[in-house]
Design brief:
The chain has about 325 residues and is mainly alpha-helical. Helices cover about 55% and strands about 0% of the residues. The protein has one domain. It is globular, with a radius of gyration of 20 Å. The chain starts with about 25 loop residues before the first helix and ends in a 12-residue tail after the last helix. The chain binds zinc ion (ZN) (2 copies).
């Protein structure tokens, strides 16, 4: 997009005002995520099996769904409703992705929508580069902290505050379950050629590493590569490759124009698997009141968008 184009957002000239002492990457925050990456090398010792690879792929997509459906479309934007018990269950499932708790996730994501590609957006590739937006921003003091004032709707639930403090229970439960499954499968079904450690390496370490980078593309590449249907005030893009990888999140320009919809692929040809699954969950009564794309958004799409976004964050 050339500068001067009506769709170009000149955000790169905006200075970053996050306090310097909160901008630096901290070793204490890098070590956990780096450890998961290094744990992938354990594959040299444990080998592989079709069962382990299948479990890896399953937990990649299952947890991608938990992040997009629950952490993003529910906790960040409240695009559907559910019972308080299922709400906690959804938050626990999301925590298995090792992306902290839903309140931390939602607080930062709402901040991103308020300031997209303008200061003080923490993970804008326009402001601080693609690598920073992909992996740098959350390894800082500011990125690791939770702005509770951005999430008063969730702060009132003691069980969610508890999960924020103990978010590691999510990955811990997954690791323990994978280890137990691998151990039992290895004993009872020798032809499967698997073990507890093989299941942990593939089902957690490799799957989580892939899941991290799949999720992070929405902060980095979805603001860099793709087309723009709507003239939003940010650099958000629609990208069908990222939409397939992230179960529908790649329709990011649609989403930035109207974040209040449970649906991010606005047309039948914009594949949005998360939305299809939410429709099925609604049919079973697990969730309800899925918020639709309003008619005025489709009108704006026919006019190739308008200069100011039809924002409805929550
Ligand atoms: Zn965005
Ligand atoms: Zn969003």
């Amino acid at each position: 997009m050339p500068p001067g184009s009506p769709l170009h957002v000149a955000a790169s000239s905006v200075p970053v005002e996050t306090p310097p002492d909160e901008r630096g990457i901290r070793l204490v925050d890098v070590l956990p995520i780096l450890s998961i990456h290094f744990l992938c090398l354990g594959v040299i010792l444990v080998g592989w099996s079709p069962l382990a690879v299948g479990v890896c792929v399953f937990f990649f997509f299952f947890r991608m769904f938990c992040i997009t459906a629950f952490y993003h479309r529910y906790f960040s934007h409240r695009t559907f409703r559910t019972h308080r018990v299922t709400q906690f269950f959804f938050s626990l499932l999301g925590a298995t992705a090792a992306q902290r708790g839903p309140v931390w996730w939602a607080a930062h994501h709402r901040h991103h929508h308020r300031h997209s590609d303008h200061d003080p957006d923490l993970h804008s590739p326009s402001l601080r580069g693609v690598i920073w937006s992909h992996t740098g921003w959350f390894l800082t003091k500011r990125g690791m902290s939770t702005d509770w004032s951005a999430v008063p709707d969730w702060a009132k639930y003691p069980e969610l505050r508890w999960l924020e403090r103990h978010h590691l229970i999510g990955p811990a439960l997954l690791i323990a379950s994978l280890g137990a499954f691998g151990f039992i499968a290895g004993k009872l079904w020798p032809e499967a050629n698997t073990s507890a450690w093989q299941m942990v390496i593939w089902g957690f370490a490799i799957s989580t590493t892939l899941l991290y980078h799949g999720t992070f593309t929405i902060n980095s590449l979805s603001h860099t590569i793709g087309s723009r249907r709507f003239r939003t005030r940010d650099n958000s893009r629609n990208n069908w490759v990222l939409a397939l990888l992230t179960l529908g999140e790649g329709w990011h320009n649609n989403h930035h124009y109207f974040p209040g919809s449970a649906r991010q692929g606005f047309y039948w040809w914009e594949i949005d698997p998360t939305y299809y699954a939410l429709r099925i969950m609604q049919a079973f009564g697990l969730i309800w009141d899925l918020r639709p794309v309003p008619a005025h958004v489709y009108d704006a799409a026919r006019r190739h968008g308008v200069d100011e976004p039809a924002r409805e964050d929550r």
